[in-house]
């Protein structure tokens, strides 16, 4: 591959990543407008996010395997086409069910494209220096998409309508498809006879959807059904010829512990992004564009810390101390948010709190390095796929659970005031709900801290020094998406 062709191919992959990550963050500031237009309840509104996340998270591992079987280029093109078509459907949606169906299809397309993008890049750039630079560009584009998405989503929603946050993907997707067919290298794949665990993928996807229905609706039968489906998925992985998640990966306490910490941390942080955007618009009466700009400092500080400081700190102090420090900052963030007043001042009450999101910029690179260090070399790809999957699942669980708690608390405060004959304005009731959700988020971070301290112990080498299988210099590499505090 020539240098020019390689750069063009990298631009195509980066553009697709930008489109997918931008679509995730662009939705958060448009949610009040979507709710007002399509009539979602406060709890049901979380499905605008969760329909996407469940499909994306649960299908990543299957999509990666299908890329091996059918060819990465083929799956990338198919995924981009599905995502583009689903974006067009979301852009013209006039009812809640149609929008949710489109969001689910967007998640399917995203999983197909994202699961193979990095593999295509590694296949194209074989020289270590070029590969490192390409990965840095690719990953930074994904991180930038999250920041751009919040601001662009607000501008489009205010200037045009929320429909345009999805329509904007269509020309980008068509351009990516046109360029990808010309510049991406073709690979034949292993063929479908090599096998893929479609049954396992169906079980885990169904289990997650049913579980989220149970959380949002408070349906114990749905929750019980979810547990049964997930148990069936685990049993399937123990017996399948080509399992999605070979259970041997969980024998490593480091891998298991890192994924547990990630689910808890990302659940808290992603709920923060959604709920704070709702607080700014519904309580503080910010416009969509103003909300995106108000939350921009969080995106900037996370990017600056993860790109500029985390690697040096990890090299000097080790992964676990940096992770614990990051989680401690996040705990302070949620404790501060749990005391948000109804009449908050942005410079006094919000801006200092947003700067505490630097903890996410410290915690995620350290957590990634720890999680990967516990995997055997031949399980590195599996560990990476699992880590990306639990990230998406944490986002879905956080959005569903904490948004539901906030809505229930708001209704309780409002109805309690009515029965007592007193008056509580809607802003006060909403703020009470958000405070409860942020308090629960603080509890999740506390549990993550306990797991990090007790389970993620540093490895001790034969010379008595701490050892790590993943170099600290690699720990700062930004992920394909900067989840949680500044992503979907």
From TrEMBL:
Gene Ontology cellular component list: plasma membrane
Gene3D superfamilies noted in UniProt: MFS general substrate transporter like domains, Multidrug resistance protein D
Keyword terms, alphabetized: Cell membrane, Membrane, Transmembrane, Transmembrane helix, Transport
Entry membrane topology: Multi-pass membrane protein
Location within or outside the cell: Cell membrane
Alphabetized InterPro entries for the sequence: MFS, MFS_dom, MFS_trans_sf
Transmembrane segments: 12-33, 45-63, 75-94, 100-122, 134-156, 162-184, 196-215, 221-239, 260-280, 286-309, 321-338, 350-372, 393-414, 434-456
Entry's Gene Ontology molecular function annotations: transmembrane transporter activity
Domain Major facilitator superfamily (MFS) profile residue range list: 9-460
PANTHER family associated with the record: BLR6921 PROTEIN, MAJOR FACILITATOR SUPERFAMILY MULTIDRUG TRANSPORTER MFSC
Name of the protein: MFS transporter
